Amino acid sequence: MDLALYFRVLWRFRFLVALGLLAAFALAALSLFSVSPSGVTYRQSEVWTANAKILVSQEGFPEGRSITEQYKFVIDPVTGKEVAQPLFPSSSRFPELAALYSALATTDPVRAVITKNGALPGSFVAATLTSSDGDALPIVVVSGTAASPDAAVATANQAAVGFVEFLNREQARSDIPDDLRSTVTIVEQASGAMLVVPRKMTRPIFIFLAVVMAVIGLAFVLENLRPRVRPVAETAEPPVLRRTA
After folding, report:
1. Separation in Å, CA 117 to CA 94, 104, 123, 161
2. pLDDT averaged over consecutive 10-residue blocks of the chain (245 residues)?
3. Are 210 and 31 in contact (CB under 8 A)?
4. What is the C-alpha end-to-end distance of the chain, expressed in Å?
């Protein structure tokens, strides 16, 4: 590779190369930014996500007790006899409710409560939290997704608050006694967001390189069409050899 030749050709067509570099920068920037009367904005949006956590439990905080097999005695209305009634359900009941509430959180009735005071700035999903061993926990994770960190946090918190309000309203409407209600408590509000999909720089880089290579190729095409003729340096005449007697 004759680097001197390359640099010589590029220098000869330096104005063309300079214009090509400016065009490459401009086209790459236009593929990344959008210019409008309202200002300059990115063409691609980032994707941020934030999580809020809801604990599914019951009055009496059974998760804080070492023994949950406790009973109270009530009168059976059929037999009239005193029977033992458990104060707390089995340990699998709350994870089952968490799975149910995760599916319920994205239904239309819940969305109506969530958005009654304004539309969400993003979208959300809900899922059951699992332990490191893969066991389901009685915790619903509400994940908000949006184009900015603040919008993702606001989406997660608004959805979590709306679901709690929906469940409390439905329990009150059904006249469920307090000691028989499941409780949903926001134990962790969304406070920070994580970037999950950054803006891709592949297109601007590709456009920049493609334009630069095209300009360099054009410079060499013009060089071949209009080669510069260089004078050949004059050489000294060879010495004349004389024969001596």
Report:
1. 30, 20, 16, 12
2. 78 88 89 80 86 88 59 67 63 87 94 91 94 88 95 96 95 88 92 88 89 90 75 58 58
3. no
4. 54
Domain 47-197 belongs to what topology? Alpha-Beta Plaits (3.30.70)
Domain positions in the chain: 3-32+200-225, 47-197
Distance between CA atoms of residues 129 and 78, nearest Å = 41
Single pTM value for the model: 0.67
- In the block, residue with structure tokens 């000869």: 12
Is residue 90 within 8 A of residue 73, CB to CB? The reply is no
- How many Å apart are CA 96 and CA 136, to the nearest integer? 8
184-198 in b/e form (b: 16+ CB < 10 A) is bebeeebeebeeeee
Q: Report the C-alpha gap between 204 and 44 in whole angstroms.
A: 12
The sign of the dihedral angle between the CA atoms of 32, 35, 36, 37 is positive
pLDDT at 125: 96
What pLDDT was estimated at residue 162? 95
